[in-house]
Amino acid sequence: MIDLRALFYGLAGAGRLIRLDISGAHMMVGGVRGFWSSLYWGAALVAPLYLLLIAIRFDPQRFDGMRYLVAHTEMYILAWLAFPILMERICTFIERPGNFLPFIIAYNWLSCLYNMMYLLIGLAQASGMIGWEAASSLSVGFLFASLIWIGHLAKKILHIPLSAAVGIVVLELFLGIIISMMTSLIVISGGLQNAG
């Protein structure tokens, strides 16, 4: 059954989290049900924008269509799963296992809004609505904002010092970079094989 209640409160709560209002995390549907709702709704809401962007950027002269789609799809799924899996282990290690679900549910909804905004910038740039310089400036701005949002969320929900929250922010940023690099390598290697 489609959980529209989780969707409504998840997005409303994420809107508050963007304003650094931690009460947004307490609005969201919690527990295991809340986790799965945040994961599949977040991924499902962002997916159309992501697919549209990779379709616009697809160059049939350079890439094999199926390999391009599969590589991006695999990395998209990995991007949604990698951080929650790592955070579950980290929460156990720092003796905050009870805080994992509230944190990751809020993180997933926050990521949903952030990724939609980030992809809209990419789409505006790819379609020529805004220039590369403006898109880059907006993207960097949203990146810094997301680091502040995640750090604030980690500090408040996990009840950890600022230095530990910064560590979580660095981990999230590092994972994003690694996944982006892996996607590029897979897609480029497919393009090189096509050219050969």
What does this structure look like?
- The chain is mostly helical and 196 residues long.
- The chain has one domain.
- 84% of the residues lie in helices and 0% in strands.
- The protein has seven helices and no strands.
- The protein has helices spanning 4-18, 23-27, 31-57, 65-93, 100-126, 132-158, 162-195.
- Helix 1 crosses helix 5 (100-126).
- The protein starts with a helix and ends with a helix.
What's a concise summary of this model?
The chain has 196 residues and is mainly alpha-helical. It has helices at 4-18, 23-27, 31-57, 65-93, 100-126, 132-158, 162-195.
Number of domains: 1
Estimated radius of gyration = 18 Å
- Low-confidence segments, given as residue ranges, are none
Shape from CA axes?
A: globular
Query: Beta-strand percentage?
Result: under 5%
N- and C-termini, Cα separation: 48 Å
Mean pLDDT: 90
Following the backbone from N to C, one meets helices and strands in this order, namely HHHHHHH
Helix share bin: over 70%
How many H/I helical runs?
Answer: 7
Main sheet characteristics:
none
| Secondary-structure class | mainly alpha
Keywords: Membrane, Transmembrane, Transmembrane helix
Transmembrane segments: 34-56, 68-87, 99-124, 130-150, 162-188
